[in-house]
Description:
Elements: E1 10-14, H1 19-30, E2 34-39, E3 47-50, E4 57-62, H2 65-72, E5 76-79, H3 83-96, E6 100-103, H4 110-123, E7 126-128, E8 134-137, E9 141-144, E10 153-160, H5 163-172, E11 178-183, H6 194-203, E12 209-215, H7 220-231, E13 236-241, H8 265-274, E14 278-279, H9 283-293
Parallel strand pairs: 1-2, 1-5, 2-4, 5-6, 6-7, 10-11, 10-12, 12-13, 13-14
Antiparallel strand pairs: 3-4, 8-9, 8-11
Helix pairs in contact: 3-4, 5-9, 6-7, 7-8
Amino acid sequence: MAIFLTEASKVIVQGMTGSEGQKHTTRMLASGTAVVGGVNPRKAGTSVTFGEGDTATDVPVFGTVAEAMDATGADVSVVFVPPAHTKAAVVEAIDAGIPLVVIITEGVPVADTAEFFALALDKGVRLIGPNCPGLISPGKSNVGIIPADITGPGRIGLVSKSGTLTYQMMYELRDLGFSTAIGIGGDPIIGTTHIDALAAFEADPDTEVIVMIGEIGGDAEERAAAYIAEHVTKPVVGYVAGFTAPEGKTMGHAGAIVSGSSGTAQAKKEALEAAGVKVGKTPSETALLARQLVS
């Protein structure tokens, strides 16, 4: 099993004809993802060839998300569109009613995110991101920029604010494998939260252990800790990035802003431990804690 993304998922790429879109579509296809179309109104009716020779794949380009869905049955869109145009692309996907939109773009204005997040809630569309690496269900499908060859399928579920720490945790536990790994992004407003992923992993019969990676700033990890205490029966292992960060500084992600004692790594660690989560001091220690829990 997996959450949000399976081998049956049919993926379209908004921005597929751009340099980033082409590069990562090549990678997604190589990892077995069913990429069934791209969207670019200026290039509708054309196609893009990925790969060479016998392994080449022609992917059609459609003028709109709705047209792509009608023609292909797509149920996932991944957005590789510059920040100034991201809101329009996401709103188009939401209006078309595609169930899952994965927004890779960094630097999306928070006001834009707030607007399309509210629309997605109203329409029942799940967003992941923005400013995220996407998600992967190893051996099934890979949507975004996560390297597909780090690990294989297994029984660990991973949800992380940090892209690079997503990759590191996948590598550290590569011999055990993952049901799904999700990079939710570190912006102040994101479509899918730790809690959303925790609920899905709790309901997934093939996820045995959950690894949750947070970082300084905001109160998402404290809220996740409260949710775990009330609703999660599976073992959860955590890591919080930013123990050495100075207070009052913005560190990396736009959401990583610390004010006083609220939002600090120590406060988040204590909240998680109070909920029964084992929290590692380093990513490697966190991986070891997870390893000890997998049967």
